[in-house]
Amino acid sequence: MTNLASIAIDMDGVLADVYAQFYDMHLAETGEEIPQTSMQGVTEHAAFPLLEKHVRTAGFFRNAKVMPSAISVVERLNQRYEVFIVSAAMEYPNSLLEKYEWLQEHFPFITWKQIILCGSKSPIATDIMIDDHFKNLNVFRGSKSYLFTQPHNIFADPGRHLRVNDWDELASYLL
């Protein structure tokens, strides 16, 4: 057992740039560009009409881009905190292997013991949680929670959660 503070870090929309993945797949399939402004303040399902098809497409989770500065900041966090990557993966079972492989490629310093692929994040009992969805943060019982800005939450009042816009800003709070 360790005395380090523990952190739960979400994958989609926090480590993995799924917005870019949705945008790129939509453009490739339809030839239509989706304006950035039309994504703001609406759910991902509303912003991307082919979302359900794309998340069920082989390679969607495996090929997502990494958020800028995520690798270096998480590597430093991993030296100072007990880090867990926590991702709701059960809704799209094909994502289980893809998310694991993606983490192994981009975050090789994260061991299999630090990866939690789950259905609900409500049982997560870390000290800190970083997520882009209120549905996960609002049930979190730890001491600090960070709302990672994404188009779907950009206009929302973060309430008791501290809003962070990118990994560099998050580093300024936690490192």
- Residue fraction in strands: 15-25%
What series of H and E elements makes up the topology?
EEHHHHEHEHEEHEEH
For the sheet with most strands, the description reads: 6 strands, parallel
* Structural class computed from helices and strand pairing: alpha/beta
Distance linking N and C termini: 22 Å
Q: Note poorly predicted spans.
A: none
Active site: 10, 12
Keywords: Hydrolase
Family: Belongs to the 5'(3')-deoxyribonucleotidase family.
Protein name: Putative 5'(3')-deoxyribonucleotidase
Secondary structure elements and pairings:
Layout: E1 6-9, E2 16-17, H1 18-30, H2 36-39, H3 44-47, H4 51-55, E3 65-66, H5 70-80, E4 82-88, H6 95-106, E5 115-118, E6 128-131, H7 134-137, E7 144-148, E8 162-164, H8 167-174
Overview of this structure, please?
The protein has helices at residues 18-30, 36-39, 44-47, 51-55, 70-80, 95-106, 134-137, 167-174, and strands spanning 6-9, 16-17, 65-66, 82-88, 115-118, 128-131, 144-148, 162-164. The protein is an alpha/beta fold and 175 residues long. The strands form two sheets. A six-stranded parallel β-sheet has the order 5-4-1-6-7-8. Strands 2-3 form a two-stranded antiparallel ribbon. It is globular and about 50 Å long.
